[in-house]
Design goal:
Keywords: ATP-binding, Ligase, Magnesium, Manganese, Metal-binding, Nucleotide-binding, Ribonucleoprotein, Ribosomal protein. GO terms for molecular function: ATP binding; ligase activity, forming carbon-nitrogen bonds; metal ion binding. About 30% of the residues lie in helices and about 20% in strands. The protein has about 325 residues and is an alpha+beta fold.
């Protein structure tokens, strides 16, 4: 690989993450440029590729790191993902590529693929019928369980509603109008006290770091919702489950959110009850995780992109068996 590799970091905003990535690329002798997908275009008169990427003239970047995709209309987001698809068609390694991002952004597809690949995850229902969603809610409540209603597209713990019996009465299903007419329901898992979940970072088929997200806004433990980040031991159970989740969605790198099953020892996430995967983030932030681990996460991501994807485009993930240890060491 040439030491003068030119990398496009696709992002709709610059800041801490992009600064870390650009520094890591410079350390590897590469030129990294931040590009907003909204500024790119398909232009069949733009020889020779039919793609115009700002800052790269009539050429294309040697590789693309997807750090962020701005929200927008259905058409806008489709076009932005189309640019990533087109780059892949032109032979440019895209990390993560559009296919994997589409799977992870759509929570229903994430749940489907996790279940299809045998990755432990809570029972999930997704559909457009409010009547069916109400029946699910009633059935779960009758069994003494609660469900969580989430936006199909969403992140950082926004828009989550916990539904079930309240004051001896079943709370009604919220209007689907606030959820783009789609009901995505996931069985609620009662966590330990104080409440927490795990975030495990998977890079190139290997779990490399973990943390516990403790507290936050009630039962929602996202860093963006005020949860405190604590170092966590990266046990075999956590590592293996997170790696399998990333593989199920075809992600080069992934932030995997997990929670202990009811009755599982939350201190070791092992034994006969593996942790459950709640969500898989294909455009994962890592500022909170970086604060509790000595691993240079940006450098690890850049190394995987350059040494695995750019050196051998299309190379499959080769999971590394993790022998246990402390991710914060």
């Amino acid at each position: 690989m040439s030491t003068a590799a030119r990398i496009a970091v696709m992002t709709d905003e610059t800041g801490w993450h992009t600064s870390r990535l650009k520094k890591a690329f410079r350390a590897r002798g590469c030129e990294a440029r931040c590009v907003d997908l909204a500024d790119c275009r398909i232009d069949t008169t733009w020889a020779p590729h039919g793609l115009a990427i700002p800052g790269f003239g009539h050429g294309l970047p040697d590789a693309v790191f997807v750090r962020g995709i701005a929200g927008g209309t259905f058409e806008q987001v489709t076009l932005r993902l189309g640019i990533l698809h087109a780059l892949r068609e032109c032979g440019v390694p895209v990390y993560n590529d559009a296919r994997a991002i589409e799977r992870s952004v759509d929570k229903s597809m994430t749940s489907f693929l996790l279940n299809r690949h045998g990755v432990p995850t809570p029972a999930t229902w997704a559909g457009e019928s409010a009547a069916f969603a109400q029946r699910v809610l009633m059935r779960e409540a009758a069994a003494g369980r609660r469900v969580v209603m989430k936006p199909l597209f969403g992140s950082q713990g926004k828009g989550l509603r916990r539904l079930g019996m309240r004051g001896g009465r079943l709370a009604p299903l919220p209007s689907l109008a606030g959820y783009s007419r789609v009901a995505y329901l996931q069985r609620y898992v009662e966590g330990a006290r104080p409440g927490f979940d795990w975030r495990v970072l998977v890079i190139g088929g290997r779990a490399v770091a973990a943390m516990r997200r403790v507290g936050g806004r009630g039962w929602i433990h996202n860093f963006a919702q005020g949860a405190a980040c604590e170092p966590a031991a990266l046990t075999d159970a956590l590592a293996q489950t997170a790696v399998r989740a990333g593989e199920a969605l075809g992600l080069d790198y992934a932030g995997v959110d997990l929670i202990a099953q009811h009755g599982q020892n939350p201190d070791d996430a092992g034994g006969n009850l593996p942790p459950l995967v709640l969500e898989v983030n294909g455009v994962a932030a890592w500022r909170g995780l970086q604060s509790v681990t000595q691993l240079d996460i940006a450098a690890a991501l850049v190394d995987d992109l350059l040494d695995r994807r750019l050196a051998a485009p299309g190379a499959p993930l080769v999971p590394v068996t993790f022998a246990g240890g402390d991710a914060s060491a």
